[in-house]
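Protocol step 4 of 6.
Sequence for O-acetyl-ADP-ribose deacetylase (Regulator of RNase III), contains Macro domain (Streptomyces wuyuanensis) entered exactly as in the expression construct, tag removed. Do not edit the line below.
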Amino acid sequence: MTGITYLRGDATAPQGKGVKLIVHVCNDLGGWGKGFVVAVSRRWPEPEKEYRRWHRERARNDFGLGAVQFVPVGPYVWVANMVGQRGMRTGSKGVPVRYEAIGTGLGAVAGKAAELGASVHMPRIGCGLAGGTWSRVEPLVRARLVEQGIPVTVYDHGTEPARGAVRA
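Step 5 output, structure tokens:
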């Protein structure tokens, strides 16, 4: 079994060969404009456009916690818009992250990655504006992706600490 590769860098510029699937967490309100999505939109307009359409037409599709929308942005790169947070603000019900939804979404990501023969690339999903902790998300990534043989690279951007090159 391979581990998770941790790199310092930008998850919107995934490293390596072959097809790459970039995964990030979205909210269930249709809001797009803060956090990692800003970097995604700077590079490609399609993920935001498709997410907004997906939310707008939610009465007729699967939009909701745990759902994932796969958007091709190049011949070898896809973006996975994964709905893994309820709302956008910390309040009386705690932080917006929903670990169960992330786990469900990662299961769909594993299926798509296997279908495409893709590696998976992500920031520390659910741990920015969603308010989650990597100690809760990493086991989900391991169970849903790594243990299924899907190569995973996690990117630490800027001043965040990178956690070693590779961990088993």
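Step 6, annotate. Residues 99-116 form the longest helix (18 residues).
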